[in-house]
From TrEMBL:
Entries under NCBIfam families matching the protein: shape_MreD (TIGR03426)
Keyword Protein transport attached: no
Gene: mreD
Cellular compartment(s): Cell inner membrane; Cell membrane
Family designation: Belongs to the MreD family.
Protein topology in the membrane: Multi-pass membrane protein
Organism in which the protein naturally occurs: Fulvimonas yonginensis
Keywords on record: Cell inner membrane, Cell membrane, Cell shape, Membrane, Transmembrane, Transmembrane helix
Chief localization: membrane
Function: Involved in formation of the rod shape of the cell. May also contribute to regulation of formation of penicillin-binding proteins.
Source organism phylogeny: Bacteria, Pseudomonadati, Pseudomonadota, Gammaproteobacteria, Lysobacterales
Protein name per UniProt: Rod shape-determining protein MreD
Transmembrane segments: 53-73, 94-112, 132-151
Length: 161
């Protein structure tokens, strides 16, 4: 298998893994701690390989996530598209931040994602979420350095550009 095909499989595989990780059921007590995996993986690829991640890919990934989870069609597509747009817009700055600043930027992006989700759900007629619902962005930001280093290490071992 040539290097380019391996890179494509690795890219698609990480996105599929993120979508499947989103489906893992957790007990009700741990549900607020579940990170938004597709956002974290798309953020990694947007920072490391900006030419592969486009707004169209974020939208299609969000539609796939909507269909897998069974929420309002377009909800996660809108969220991921907004997240990737901001990440790509500030990619040149975010890439060279130290890890702690990058983690804070990821936290800001994930909190922005939650605010956008709250607006969409309120317009759809749902009630405001409980305060525990806001824990997930902090868990995602805490996992960011480990996820980034893991994906980066595996990408380097496979020598994928």
């Amino acid at each position: 298998m040539n290097r380019q095909r391996l890179a494509q499989w690795w890219f698609v595989g990480t996105l599929v893994f993120a979508l499947l990780a989103m489906l893992v059921p957790l007990p009700a007590a741990l549900q607020p701690f579940k990170p938004y995996w597709p956002a974290l993986v798309l953020l990694y690829w947007a920072l490391e390989s900006g030419d592969r991640v486009t707004l169209g890919l974020a939208f299609v990934t969000g539609l796939a996530a909507d269909l897998l989870v069974g929420v309002l069609l377009g909800e996660q597509a809108l969220r991921l598209t907004a997240l990737v747009f901001i990440a790509l817009r500030f990619r040149s700055r975010l890439r060279f931040f130290p890890m702690w600043q990058q983690t804070l930027a990821v936290l800001a992006l994930l909190l922005n994602d939650r605010i956008l989700l709250t607006i969409v759900r309120v317009f759809a007629g749902d009630a405001l979420p409980p305060p525990s619902w806001w824990i997930s962005p902090f868990v995602g930001a805490a996992l960011w350095p480990f996820l980034f280093l893991l994906l980066d290490d595996l990408r380097m071992r496979l020598r994928i550009q």
